[in-house]
Design goal:
mainly alpha; 3% strand; globular
């Protein structure tokens, strides 16, 4: 009698399917821009087709029913994620001043490969009157998230759909890393705790419903590192097609979300690249040449696609127009960012700045002196100040203590495995050395959202701690010590609850105000902060009849977070 086997769906494949969809969509739309087609909704269907073909390619043993079940679940997850974001308005500064304007421009026909934003605005003079042009930023910055957002803006008619990428990446990576951690010998509860802390980390959770990109950048970097770890894991071999896909998608997206993503991906990939080649040279010198050629060739191809195709609208344009691919952050006439940091930081190196801020009170201050505190102490106001751009101790009020404990665990594991477990030793060094290097070479590394890779250190420590705890069969006093780090990391995450609560409260106010405006024949509006151009698109998307004035409005109502003053008029003007 034939054995009846029921195959369950893979969380890893579900998560990776979402990542493949995003990468395919951005790649297709970038090609459309190169060929002067512009952003087009057909790229959405093309991305679904590519994702379906990929599922068949990497899972030959699956039936058609399984593949289409993956596609159906993926579409439902995507629908759920977009629906949530349609209900929540982004009122972050950069979201309104840069990101939403860039998405709207792309959706309205702007082609950044062939024209500047200011040239585009000449066709829409009324926009220039309403808000300040962010052309210096949107012309030159990497555009993967804006391309993704523009497509969903076209499909839904709301600019708020464009920020769906953040929640999508959190969910996708949770599914991926949860499945991967099971292969590392962790228990189910440990697996899901680490997967949650890693995917919904302080940076990603505080930016989840904004258009800020650092959380998604961090997760795409985590995906790269996880792929490299699994490719070297001697205890478990994942499907090589899965690994090639996750690494490729991670690099293509990470390098085109922000310029810092290019640096982060390059440094971590180079670290694994060097250690792997050294290992091959020691163990099997005859294969060194072939291994070097394969890996180097792969990176050359992927980086070329990242820069010349997806990055054609930023990296290539910057090189041609300003002689540096990272303009305006580097090269001739670069813009120097000095605002937003304490004045005495000018004389400090980056390491000193970082360690001073590590032990700082969790605050949203700019030029003021740093307030130092003892690790694991806190004041109640620290639990209320977190935002999508928390300037000081942005990983949470207890992160300094968590970081110190994590460093101790890493040193302990390095010492324990130095001679007995070369793979673990190399793994720890492959992650720790680039992390410490980036602190010293990337400006503003003390701001949490500019250094999301640092959260890998407590995550890695937690994995090592749980593995060590699982080896001890009997419960004893040492088990209590093993639980200190996960408990502290969980409590630290509570500091980011007010961010989500504030979003819900503010959005209730926004929905109520917009519903009132939609009922009126005309609304007189004024932007109190002219950089907040994204608010204009919220009004437009809601179908509100508005008339903007550059003068302040008397006897008006106000939505301070949107920098919008308005007065409902009785008659249409």
């Amino acid at each position: 009698m034939a054995e009846n086997k029921t195959k369950s769906l893979s969380g890893y494949l579900l998560g990776l399917e979402l990542i493949v969809f995003v990468t395919s969509l951005v790649l297709l739309e970038s090609i459309f821009l190169l060929f002067r087609i512009g952003i087009h909704p057909i790229g959405f269907l093309g991305a679904i087709f590519i994702t379906t073909a990929w599922l068949f390619w990497c899972n030959e043993e699956n039936t058609y029913q399984y593949v289409f079940l993956y596609i159906l679940i993926g579409i439902l997850l995507l629908f759920f994620i977009v629906l949530i974001n349609l209900c929540l308005y982004d009122y972050s500064y950069d979201g309104k001043a840069i990101h939403q304007i860039a998405m709207a421009n792309l959706k309205d026909g702007w082609n950044p490969v062939y024209e500047s934003a200011d040239t585009f605005y000449e066709r829409f003079p009324e926009l220039n009157q309403l808000y300040s042009s962010p052309a210096i930023w949107i012309d030159h910055y990497a555009k993967a998230s804006w391309i993704f957002g523009a497509v969903f803006y076209q499909l839904t008619g709301s600019v708020e759909a464009g920020k769906s990428l953040n929640l999508l990446f959190c969910i996708a990576f949770f599914l991926i890393i949860a499945d991967s951690l099971k292969k590392f010998g962790l228990k189910k509860r440990q697996t899901y705790l680490i997967a949650f802390l890693c995917s919904f980390n302080p940076v990603s959770i505080s930016e989840m419903f904004s258009s800020y990109l650092d959380g998604s950048l961090g997760i795409s970097l985590f995906l790269i590192i996880l792929s490299l770890i699994e490719s070297e894991n001697p205890y478990y071999q994942r499907n090589r097609k899965h690994l090639a896909t996750s690494l490729t998608c991670g690099i293509l997206i990470c390098t085109n979300l922000k310029y810092t993503g290019f640096a982060y991906a390059a440094v971590f990939c180079f670290s694994f690249y060097i250690f792997h080649l050294i290992t091959v040279f020691i163990k099997n010198p005859k294969n060194f040449g072939i291994t070097w050629a394969k890996i180097t060739g792969y990176y050359c191809i992927i980086v070329s696609i990242a820069i010349l195709v997806i990055g054609s609208n930023s990296y290539v344009r910057n090189q041609l127009d300003h002689h540096h691919i990272f303009y305006p952050l580097m090269g001739p006439n670069k813009i120097v960012f000095s605002e937003g940091r304490p004045e005495n930081f000018e004389e400090m190196n980056f390491y000193k700045q970082f360690f001073l801020m590590l032990f700082s009170k969790c605050e949203n201050l700019l030029k003021e002196d740093v307030t130092l505190k003892i690790p694991f102490t806190f004041s109640w106001d620290e639990w209320r100040v977190t935002t999508c751009d928390t300037r000081r101790s942005g990983f949470g009020p207890w992160f300094s203590g968590i970081f110190l404990i994590s460093l101790g665990i890493i040193v302990w594991e390095l010492k324990d495995s130095w001679k007995t477990n070369p793979w673990k030793r190399n793994l720890l060094l492959e992650i720790m050395l680039p992390s410490l290097l980036l602190i010293g070479i990337v400006e503003h590394s003390w701001v949490a959202r500019y250094s999301p890779y640092l959260y890998l250190i407590p995550i890695l420590s937690l994995i090592m701690l749980f593995k060590r705890m699982n080896k001890t069969q009997e419960k004893n006093s040492r088990h209590f010590l093993y639980l200190i780090l996960p408990v502290c990391m969980t409590i630290n995450m509570l500091a980011f609850g007010p961010v989500l609560a504030k979003i819900l409260v503010r959005n209730y106010q926004f929905h109520k105000a917009f519903a009132e405006m939609k009922k009126s024949p005309m609304v007189l509006c004024h932007l109190s902060e002219k950089n907040h151009g994204g608010t204009v698109y919220n009004l437009r998307d809601q179908g509100i009849h508005y008339l903007f004035t550059l003068e302040e409005i008397s006897d008006c109502m106000s939505l301070p977070e949107l920098h919008l003053d308005y007065r409902i008029l009785e008659d249409e003007m």
